[in-house]
């Protein structure tokens, strides 16, 4: 990692930390920063009420935003790097659609609670990813085939989700629809902790696995000649990326465009040809914690699901990205 | 042959369902209306539904041929190019922001959305080096679908009534159209069909490549514009009529091509006959498999069509047409 990458990472983490602190002080029960810090330090000066608000209501959500953002950013960076396509991200290639279909099934048909939904989403994402990977295998997996198969699978799963939404009563369906948009509202420790653990465990794993990736970026043929086990390196990395995206989606729903945008922003800031995984993860954390803070406060006291915000901001970025990628001929 | 199968599919669509009706009973109530339940089912439910399937199917099949011919892309179709998602977004916009209701209002929004999304995706996909390759177009379409779909979801979250209307519409069902809607749709479809027929020659010329087509003296711009307009009108009407139905526009042209070869003057009519067969068959299947509930036609086509799309993608050469 060069100095620029370190600087970008540190700056992104500072932004995320600031967003975290701000989001701990703001809300229906505003609190000065000093009180928040007292509570966080475990001091006795804080009232029980502020301790409850900070530790049980706001901290899990704010930390959840950072963890989920990190997971999405890292996952997106890995997928984009392996597939060598800036548009390949878990939300475009269909992993999220699988998580969504299972989650909506659980919400609508079985009236399951958040824990079960999270588990189901995890399983759905994993199964879909495996299916897409196997379907696009044919003497190895090429990037574009992975993306195109993902598009087909997404179309199918989306229509299953639409059907399920139709069979439910309107209130259940709307609840499911909010889940589909992605929201961090009301997340508790039991939902956030798995994401934190996954990030802590999988970040080093990803870095270790990505070490031989430089060779991969030279193209499959050259990598083969250099003796990189292309297929295996790819599969292991993709598996890590899917696990990250799945855990994050299970906790917060399929929040769109973070996995896609974070690596691209990081890459531009770092000005490196390759994708810096750590910087992407940090940028993801910064993006999502800012977005969630905005989702909470823009229309206060009403709240937006954070996924609405990321879509509205992320989509134009995606279009710009695509136009750029086409212009320099790196899409196909 | 194909026409006979179409007739059979039509009959099946009228007769089969939650309550199966005999041929003689159906004919009897039609010739001598007796006000019975069966007559009402046939007149108000089955016949409009079947007509909607015929019209929307034909429109989707023809627009699929047009889109694939225009973009010379085997993966083109209204669902892949983001046209469905565009129409969905503008229809929802129409409902929430402008308060339009009913087909007459929707159809214009559906046109606008289909056109904007279609041209936008094509512009994006053909931008830059190499022109519009299948992969670039499909990616642009996927990106647009993610974008437009996200906005649509966001809009529907604002208002529970819109959400309710949208969720029924979004599966792609033939049941929402009644006779008056179908009557309103007919002129649009007629215009689309004429435009499609006119553009057949131009599309054949385009298939030879731009240079060749120019050498043959075809007005490329005019031909392209006519075909594009026809595709927009047909897709927009079909989406307004039956909601976003996936994979009919994509798969049917391939079937037609397998039957009659690549000449558009044959492809277009064959697609117009084959696509309603597919759509009606999907609709009937959806009624039969999930009794007493129903699977909407759009669900059936998506579940059956996706493997076809994947198979196309897996072919060794992603043929540009």
UniProtKB/TrEMBL annotation, chain A:
The keyword Ion transport does not apply. GO terms for molecular function: transmembrane transporter activity. SUPFAM superfamilies: ABC transporter involved in vitamin B12 uptake, BtuC. It comes from Paractinoplanes atraurantiacus. Keywords: Cell membrane, Membrane, Transmembrane, Transmembrane helix, Transport. GO terms for biological process: siderophore-iron import into cell. Belongs to the binding-protein-dependent transport system permease family. FecCD subfamily. This is Iron complex transport system permease protein. It is a multi-pass membrane protein. It comes from the Bacteria. The chain crosses the membrane at residues 62-80, 92-111, 117-135, 147-171, 236-262, 274-294, 306-323. One of its GO terms (cellular component) is plasma membrane. InterPro entries: ABC_BtuC-like, ABC_transptr_permease_BtuC. It is found in: Cell membrane.
Automatic annotation (TrEMBL), chain B:
InterPro entries: ABC_BtuC-like, ABC_transptr_permease_BtuC. Keywords: Cell membrane, Membrane, Transmembrane, Transmembrane helix, Transport. Its main location: membrane. Pfam families: FecCD. The keyword Repeat does not apply. It is a multi-pass membrane protein. One of its GO terms (biological process) is siderophore-iron import into cell. Belongs to the binding-protein-dependent transport system permease family. FecCD subfamily. This is Iron complex transport system permease protein. It comes from Paractinoplanes atraurantiacus.
């Amino acid at each position: 990692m060069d100095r620029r990458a370190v600087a970008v990472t540190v700056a992104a983490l500072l932004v995320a930390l600031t967003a975290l602190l701000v989001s701990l002080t703001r809300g229906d029960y505003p609190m000065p920063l000093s009180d928040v810090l007292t509570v966080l330090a475990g001091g006795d000066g804080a009232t029980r009420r502020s301790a409850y608000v900070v530790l049980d209501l706001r901290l899990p959500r704010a930390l959840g935003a950072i963890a989920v953002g990190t997971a999405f950013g890292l996952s997106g960076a890995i997928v984009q790097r392996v597939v060598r396509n800036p548009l390949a991200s878990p939300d475009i290639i269909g992993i999220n659609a699988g998580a969504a279909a299972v989650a909506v099934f659980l919400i609508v048909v079985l009236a399951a609670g958040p824990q079960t939904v999270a588990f189901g989403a995890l399983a759905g994402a994993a199964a879909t990813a495996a299916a897409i990977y196997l379907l696009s295998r044919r003497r190895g997996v090429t990037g574009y085939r992975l993306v195109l198969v993902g598009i087909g699978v997404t179309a199918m799963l989306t229509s299953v989700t639409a059907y399920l939404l139709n069979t439910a009563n309107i209130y259940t369906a709307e609840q499911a629809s909010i889940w589909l948009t992605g929201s961090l509202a009301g997340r508790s420790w039991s939902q956030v902790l798995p994401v934190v653990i996954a990030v802590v465990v999988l970040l080093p794993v990803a870095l270790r696995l990505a070490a031989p990736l430089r060779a991969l970026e030279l193209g499959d043929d050259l990598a083969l000649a250099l003796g990189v086990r292309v297929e295996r390196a790819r599969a292991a990395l993709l598996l890590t990326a899917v696990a990250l995206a799945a855990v994050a989606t299970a906790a917060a729903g399929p929040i769109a465009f973070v996995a896609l945008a974070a690596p691209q922003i990081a890459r531009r800031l770092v000005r490196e040809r390759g994708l810096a995984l750590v910087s992407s993860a940090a940028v993801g954390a910064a993006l999502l914690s800012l977005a969630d803070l905005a989702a909470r406060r823009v229309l206060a006291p009403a709240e937006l699901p954070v996924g609405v915000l990321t879509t509205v901001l992320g989509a134009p970025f995606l279009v710009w990205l695509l136009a750029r990628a086409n212009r320099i001929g790196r899409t196909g | 042959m194909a026409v006979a199968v179409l007739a059979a599919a039509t009959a099946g669509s009228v007769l089969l369902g939650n309550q199966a009706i005999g041929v003689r009973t159906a004919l009897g109530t039609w010739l001598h209306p007796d006000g019975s339940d069966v007559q009402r089912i046939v007149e108000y439910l089955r016949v409009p539904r079947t007509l909607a399937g015929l019209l929307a199917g034909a429109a989707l099949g023809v627009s699929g041929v047009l889109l694939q011919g225009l973009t010379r892309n085997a993966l083109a179709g209204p669902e892949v190019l983001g046209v469905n998602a565009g129409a969905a977004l503008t229809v929802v916009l129409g409902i929430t922001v402008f308060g339009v209701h009913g087909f007459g209002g929707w159809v214009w929004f559906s046109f606008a959305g289909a056109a904007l999304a279609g041209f936008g995706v094509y512009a994006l996909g053909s931008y830059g080096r190499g022109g519009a390759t299948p992969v670039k177009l499909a990616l642009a379409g996927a990106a647009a679908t993610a974008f437009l779909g996200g906005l649509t979801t966001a809009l529907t979250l604002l208002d529970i009534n819109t959400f309710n209307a949208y969720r029924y519409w979004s599966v792609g069902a033939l049941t929402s159209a009644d006779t008056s809607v179908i009557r309103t749709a007919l002129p649009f479809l007629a215009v689309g069909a004429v435009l499609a027929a006119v553009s057949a020659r131009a599309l054949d010329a385009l298939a030879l490549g731009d240079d060749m087509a120019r050498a043959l003296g075809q007005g490329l711009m005019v031909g392209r514009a006519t075909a594009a307009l026809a595709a927009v009108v047909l897709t927009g009407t079909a989406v307004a009529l039956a909601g976003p139905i996936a994979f009919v526009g994509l798969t049917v042209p391939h079937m037609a091509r397998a039957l009659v070869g690549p000449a558009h003057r044959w492809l277009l009519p064959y697609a117009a006959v084959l696509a309603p067969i597919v759509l009606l068959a999907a609709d009937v299947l959806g009624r039969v498999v999930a009794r007493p509930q129903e699977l909407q036609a759009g669900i059936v086509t998506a579940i059956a069509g996706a493997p076809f799309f994947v198979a196309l993608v897996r072919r060794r050469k992603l043929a540009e047409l």
